Each structure stands twice: as structure tokens, then as C-alpha cells.
């Protein structure tokens, strides 16, 4: 019996590896590295929040907004990732991004102005991570089909491992200070360039994996209708620019209800998670009265939950075929909202650890399944553009709203109201996911009827 189980596991592992091939797993490694680097940067800034506030004599909300700018730089830059990859190739773009990320962080460690640091990290470091992140996710979706959930799950381990690095970051801060810590991180970020040099884009192929791009309203017009404006206006220069921009950045996506529902889900979910990342240390140490060591342990519990989720969700989704990806996603979003509602009322150590463990499990499940849903709906051809636009819209939402939790704390000295609002708004994403499922089924039924 034991040998039979071992044989089945081995066969499953071999099939999973063959599904993506060597270069597919290099893409997984690249995604793992870019996720780890991005999350280490943001988490490090969150841990430095009290230190930077004291160093630069400024308000909590202003430092939080600075972190929001950096995070928005990561997400907003993804919209140019696919056009850059099409023009220069994945290997070149990711390699250059690794070099830019490492050098810019090292440069920021020498600056004495908060605004200068924010500028460097937002304009150079953030986009380097954001572009690499979108390209590697796009490559994973292009290489994998049956094992795509497992591939995204293993790549998401990069984000999970961040929370095991937290004690190491705290050690660096205690020994070397925030400038020395950034010097060390800048050197480590250069490893992304090494991974990028190993990448190779997949050969062009038809849609053989069963996924089909979602049609936008614009695509319902005939080719004759699309050419009519050119004939009418004599191929105007401005029309050619608009047409090129529309095709390069896939602006037609904004006419798709499916795309708009995905944008709503992703933006709300990412906004709340970023707020949690930035303010959690202060929330637990100041509002709840725990020590910094306790806060680190809560974060480690969260990281443990993330790690188990990344390892288990792929085989689980592949085994339980009766439950759709949308149902899994709606359940993960719902339980994440439960965390925001419950946590402010917990004051004991072990209940907070258990709650953090639960939140850690369902956050990466949401991330992984949302990526899978994007490929299911939009296919290989459009998913890179979708990932980029999701990041840009989410980044803008963070710029506009992510200062709010810090401002509420400055005014009230408490985060309870903010967490309650987050729990309520998170429920909207559950309904949006159910609407997404219904809309996709309606779209498929309409396509089959018309054919």
C-alpha cells in the first residue's frame, strides 16, 4: 500500500513537471523571486514605520502613504510589462529589472530626504518588481495547463517566505539600522537579474489548453466596421495612434463586464491586504499592547498558514473537481473578511495566533485562484494585459485610500473602526465573484448558441 501511494505521488510529480517543462519551472522560480523581493520591500518599510517616523519627525499617515506610493509603483508599472516583453523579450526585461531594483535600493540607503527615498523606490524599485511580477505570471500561465494551480501556488510561496524573513529583518534593523538593512536588501535583490537571464518565452502556439479569451463588446463588430473610420477620415494620424495604443494595451478590455468585476475584486482585496501589511505592527504593539516580539510571532503564524495554503491548494483544487474555481475563490474572500471582523475583538495571545494562521491560509488561496480565474476567462492572449491593468487600478486605489487607516489612528488612537469597515467592504468581493461566475456561464452559453 505504501509503495503504491509513493508511486502515485511520484507519477503526479512527474506529470506536473512535464506540464510546464524546464522553462516553465524557471518562470515559477522567477515569479517566486519577484514576489519575495516585492513583499520583503513592503514589509521592511512597514517594520521601519516607527523608526522612519522618528528619524524624519513626521506623522504616521504620511509614512504609511509613502509605503502606499512604493507599493503603487510596483502594481501600476505592470501595465507596460507585456508590451515590453513583446518588444525586448522576457529574458532581457527581467534581467534589467533585477539590476535596477538592486541598484536603486542601495542608492536609497544613502539618501537623507524622505521625499528622495520615496521617489527612488517609487520610480525605479517598484516598477522593476512590478514588471518582473507580471511577466513571470504571464509565462507561468503560458507554460502550464493542467497543473496551473500548483504552479501558481509554488510561485506564491515567495510571498509566504517573507514572513519567515521578518525576524531576520528585525535583526538587521537592530544591528545595522535602516540604512544598513537597505544595503543588504539591495544586494540580495540583484539575484532577480540572475533568474531573469535563465528565462525563455514559450513558443507561439494556438489555444490548446482549453481556455478561450473573453470577448469584449468591441470585438463584436465586424472587420468592415473597424476599417470604416480609417476610410472615412483618410487614415488620420490620431486615429492610427489611438488604434496602436488600443491594441498595445488592450483598451478593449474595459468594455468587458467580466474584466470590470475582476478589477473590483482585485482592487478591494489588495487594498485591504496592503493596509494590513503596513499598519499591522503598530496595530498590535500600540493598539493591543503586545510587544514587537509578539507581533513578529503573529506574522510568523500568518506565514505558516500561507505556506500550507501554497502547498495544498493546487492538489486540492485538482482533486475536488466538483467545486468550481469561482466557488473556491468566493469562500476564500469570505473567510478573509471574517478575519477583519473578528481580529479587533481578540486580546489574548493564542486566539490572535489562530486567527492569523487562518488569515494566512486564505489570503494566498485568493491570490492563486484569482490568477487561475484570469486565465480561464481571458486565455493566454490577454492575461498578461489583464494582470497589468489590475495592478495599475489597484495601485491607484492604494494611492487614494491607503493613508486612511493611519489617519483614523492619528485621530482616534484605535484601528477597530477601520477593521470593521474592511470586513464589510470585503463582503462585496464575494458577491462580485458570484456575479463573475454567473456572467462567465452566460457568456459561454451565448457563444455556444451563436455557433
Overall description:
This protein has 451 residues and is mostly helical. The protein is 83% helix and 0% strand. It has helices at 2-47, 49-56, 60-76, 81-88, 90-108, 114-143, 148-189, 191-197, 223-233, 237-249, 257-287, 292-319, 325-342, 349-401, 404-412, 416-450. Helix 3 (60-76) packs parallel to helix 6 (114-143) and helix 5 packs antiparallel against helix 8 (191-197). The longest helix has 53 residues, at 349-401. The protein is globular, with a radius of gyration of 22 Å.
Q: How would you characterize the largest beta sheet? A: none
Distance between the termini: 49 Å
What's the total number of strands? 0
Low-confidence stretches: 205-212, 215-230
Proportion of beta-strand residues: under 5%
The radius of gyration computed from the alpha-carbon positions, rounded to a whole number of angstroms, is 22 Å
What class would the helix/strand composition place it in? mainly alpha
Helix and strand succession?
A: HHHHHHHHHHHHHHHH
Total of DSSP H or I helical runs spanning 4+ residues: 16
Mean pLDDT: 80
Helix content: over 70%
Amino acid at each position: 500500500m505504501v509503495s503504491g501511494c509513493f508511486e502515485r505521488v511520484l507519477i503526479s510529480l512527474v506529470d506536473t513537471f512535464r506540464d510546464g517543462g524546464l522553462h516553465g519551472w524557471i518562470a515559477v522560480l522567477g515569479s517566486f523571486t519577484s514576489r519575495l523581493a516585492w513583499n520583503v520591500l513592503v514589509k521592511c518599510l512597514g517594520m521601519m514605520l516607527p523608526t522612519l517616523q522618528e528619524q524624519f519627525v513626521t506623522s504616521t499617515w504620511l509614512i504609511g502613504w509613502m509605503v502606499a506610493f512604493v507599493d503603487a509603483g510596483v502594481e501600476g508599472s505592470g501595465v507596460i510589462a507585456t508590451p515590453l516583453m513583446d518588444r525586448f523579450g522576457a529574458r532581457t526585461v527581467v534581467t534589467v529589472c533585477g539590476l535596477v531594483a538592486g541598484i536603486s535600493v542601495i542608492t536609497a540607503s544613502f539618501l537623507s530626504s524622505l521625499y528622495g527615498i520615496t521617489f527612488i523606490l517609487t520610480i525605479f524599485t517598484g516598477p522593476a518588481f512590478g514588471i518582473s511580477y507580471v511577466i513571470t505570471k504571464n509565462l507561468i500561465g503560458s507554460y502550464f495547463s493542467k497543473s496551473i494551480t500548483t504552479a501558481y501556488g509554488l510561485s506564491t510561496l515567495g510571498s509566504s517566505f517573507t514572513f519567515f524573513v521578518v525576524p531576520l529583518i528585525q535583526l538587521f534593523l537592530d544591528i545595522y539600522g535602516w540604512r544598513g538593512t537597505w544595503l543588504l536588501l539591495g544586494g540580495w535583490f540583484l539575484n532577480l537579474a540572475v533568474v531573469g537571464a535563465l528565462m525563455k518565452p514559450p513558443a507561439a502556439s494556438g489555444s490548446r489548453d482549453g481556455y478561450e479569451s473573453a470577448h469584449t463588446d468591441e470585438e463584436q463588430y465586424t472587420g468592415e466596421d473597424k476599417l470604416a473610420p480609417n476610410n472615412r477620415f483618410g487614415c488620420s494620424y490620431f486615429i492610427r495612434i489611438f488604434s496602436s495604443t488600443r491594441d498595445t494595451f488592450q483598451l478593449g478590455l474595459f468594455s468587458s463586464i467580466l474584466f470590470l468585476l475582476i478589477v473590483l475584486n482585485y482592487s478591494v482585496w489588495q487594498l485591504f491586504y496592503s493596509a494590513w501589511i503596513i499598519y499591522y505592527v503598530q496595530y498590535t504593539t500600540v493598539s493591543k499592547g503586545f510587544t514587537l516580539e509578539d507581533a513578529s510571532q503573529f506574522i510568523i503564524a500568518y506565514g505558516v498558514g500561507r505556506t500550507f495554503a501554497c502547498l495544498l491548494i493546487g492538489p486540492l483544487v485538482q482533486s475536488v473537481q466538483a467545486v468550481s474555481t469561482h466557488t473556491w475563490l468566493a469562500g476564500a474572500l469570505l473567510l478573509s473578511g471574517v478575519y477583519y471582523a473578528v481580529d479587533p475583538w481578540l486580546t489574548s495571545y493564542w486566539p490572535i495566533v489562530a486567527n492569523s494562521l487562518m488569515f494566512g491560509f486564505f489570503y494566498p488561496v485568493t491570490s492563486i485562484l484569482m490568477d487561475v480565474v484570469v486565465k480561464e476567462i481571458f486565455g493566454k492572449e490577454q492575461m498578461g494585459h489583464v494582470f497589468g491593468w489590475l495592478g495599475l487600478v489597484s495601485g491607484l486605489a492604494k494611492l487614494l485610500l491607503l493613508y486612511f487607516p493611519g489617519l483614523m489612528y492619528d485621530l482616534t488612537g484605535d484601528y477597530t473602526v477601520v477593521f470593521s469597515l474592511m470586513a464589510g467592504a470585503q463582503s462585496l468581493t464575494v458577491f462580485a465573484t458570484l456575479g463573475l461566475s454567473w456572467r462567465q456561464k452566460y457568456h459561454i452559453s451565448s457563444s455556444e448558441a451563436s455557433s
